[in-house]
Design brief:
Two copies of one chain form a homodimer. Chain A has about 325 residues and is an alpha/beta fold. Helices cover about 45% and strands about 15% of the residues of chain A. Chain A has a six-stranded parallel beta sheet, sandwiched between helices. Chains A and B meet through helix 4, helix 5, strand 2, helix 6 and helix 11 of A and helix 4, helix 5, strand 2, helix 6 and helix 11 of B. The structure holds a DNA duplex (30 and 30 nucleotides).
Chain lengths: ~325, ~325
DNA sequence: CCATGAAAGCGAAACGTTTCGGATTTGAAT
DNA sequence: ATTCAAATCCGAAACGTTTCGCTTTCATGG
């Protein structure tokens, strides 16, 4: 494999000159041609490893996520990766299988690989797995979930979950529903709390008192959504359900199908987060959408800014959700 | 950031000794303790960049795929990544957006990053984008699609698509169907040809003559499946449809829903590839499944073998599909 | 034709490892 | 104590870049 030295020998120029040209410096026209010719002839490509060692910048971003098989996260990564790659950065992905120990290990692994930045949708609640990164001066971007202890030290891109949940529940209330169930994520998780807050806020704001029985906790898995739905369907008076993530939406639908619950006649349903699914389900599902593309773009932007410029300004973005109307919400006339 | 030199100074030992110990060599007990202590005290971690430069092995595998938002591919990557990371390898993912030019660029990018191996689900038909990798002696593993020109030079992990398609179509024939539509991928793509072959084989083997009108080509997108289904539904006599990938299965269902086609009463349907979907759709969908986990495992295995051992033996695996029974296939009694 | 300043070119050191081959230490046997 | 092989240790070079501080070359105007 050809090195810069080979180019130097081939062209009769000095190492420094070649390097300078390769990095955008100017050289005399005839030398430029000579270098180009030699590069072509020898099939030279810069050895990023050596470059990285010398510059102590690996041009690599590490990504740590609970799981790859999750449209939320893959869409964001795709978008971010696209932009980063155009800027010469590569993305190393670590799937920690929703396990805090593996998450910690992944961060350690990435730091050892000398990544320039870390994107994390955190599993751990306390965020200690990121301390070493921060100590090392590696910028961290948190998505989806905030960790209070790290406020001001890490960048974050969140979604206004409370508003999103509130909008969904308000939509149900406007349609005449009074007894609205909600299937939340695990207790203690950031997004669970936010979405719960939105639910409660919409209820009280409309003069309804949230009944704890109508609030069930799942674990953001298909299974959890399934069980949550079974539990809710036993409650008398229930006419609508709001499910707070994609996987649980799937589970809830499975449960509904099993019990032949007609949507929206018998039950109104608002799901979360997957456009494609919302179309294929009959009836078309009304869902809360998150701005995935924007999140990915924002993440890429933050990294580029933090690494290219020397602006150590901490960004804390909160983006808005949308409500995509389908046919899964039925109207109840007031008695 | 602490280096090996700091450890040497701290312990009074030589560079070579520390390096040796760090790489699993034996040192005197008291030195071992001294090194451990110094490592802890200074928070030393090996600089993989420097190590890679010296050993000219980056311990990184590059992955080039048409798109990340695709359960087929993410499941495989997850599995492979899991195994590779446990062995100290990281995975760089490049999503080429189903664009051959971007795919070529991604390979170039990865080679510049000095990856030790490349996993590719190819978009390009001729595979020239991989030539530079092969020249550089970087092992390549192809998944899902074979490129004949590269046979014997690249590893491959394929699925017996012909058999899988044949099994699905046979299942329909056994249920009494005679006029069976199939929605294939784009013409000229490897898997399209394989699945078409399976379809034809099952038909002729059962004494039926395949009618070209019942064979439509899509492009492996939701839209393509939708259009294909609309076209098929205009054909008189059609009683069953086999859709040959996940995205198109979604599209086909949307089309069916729009026209209120009852499944399986009016039309029997066999889809492809997504377990979760098959459960959530009502009625439960019968699908052809691919052994995603095994593919991921096999890929990791091939890389580890090729990189750790010096066994340059080319592997060409062909795995079997399964048929997951749902309720979307109805029986037609012979007239 | 010379002086001059700017532009371009250069050698050498450094980044943090690994590794080679020789030097030193160890500890058991004499 | 002495010897000796085995075990351990070590200095130095090398991996392929970038970069610093000089030196050389060039074009221009006088």
């Amino acid at each position: 494999m050809a090195t810069i030295k080979d180019i130097a020998r081939e062209t009769g120029l000095g190492l420094a000159t070649i390097s300078k040209y390769l990095n955008g410096g100017t050289v005399r026209e005839k030398n430029r041609l000579a270098i180009e010719a030699a590069v072509d002839k020898l099939g030279y490509t810069v050895n990023e490893l050596a470059r990285s060692l010398k510059t102590s910048r690996s041009r690599t971003i590490g990504v740590v996520i609970p799981e790859l098989g999750n449209a939320f996260v893959t869409t964001i990564i795709t978008e971010m990766e696209d932009i980063l790659r155009k800027n010469g950065y590569s993305v190393i992905v670590c799937d920690c299988r929703t396990d805090a120990a593996q998450e910690r290990e992944a961060v350690r692994f990435l730091l050892q690989k000398r990544v320039d930045g870390i994107l994390n949708m955190p599993v751990s609640r306390d965020g200690t797995h990121l301390d070493s990164a921060l100590e090392a001066g590696v910028p961290v971007v948190l998505i989806d979930r905030m960790i209070d202890r790290l406020a001001g030290k890490v960048h974050s891109i969140l979604v206004d979950n409370a508003a999103g949940a509130s909008a969904a529940v308000s939509r149900l209330i406007d349609a005449g529903h009074r007894h609205i169930g909600v299937i939340l994520g695990p207790q203690g998780v950031f997004t669970t709390a936010q979405r719960h807050l939105g639910y409660s806020r919409a209820m009280t704001r409309n003069g309804l008192t949230p009944d704890a029985a109508f609030v069930v906790y799942g674990d953001y898995t298909v299974q959890g959504g399934y069980e949550g739905m079974r539990r809710l369907l036993e409650l008398p008076g229930l006419t609508a359900v709001f499910v707070t993530n994609y996987e649980m939406t799937l589970g809830a639908i499975i449960a509904g199908n099993e019990l032949s619950v007609k949507i929206p006649e018998r039950l109104s349903l608002i799901g979360f987060d997957n456009l494609q699914l919302s179309q294929v389900i009959q009836p078309r599902l009304t869902i809360v959408t998150q701005p995935l593309k924007e999140i990915g773009e924002a993440a890429a932007g933050i990294f580029l800014e933090a690494l290219e410029a020397d602006a150590p300004e901490i960004r804390e973005l909160v983006l808005n959700t949308g409500l995509l109307e389908g046919d899964s919400v039925g109207t109840i006339s007031e008695p």
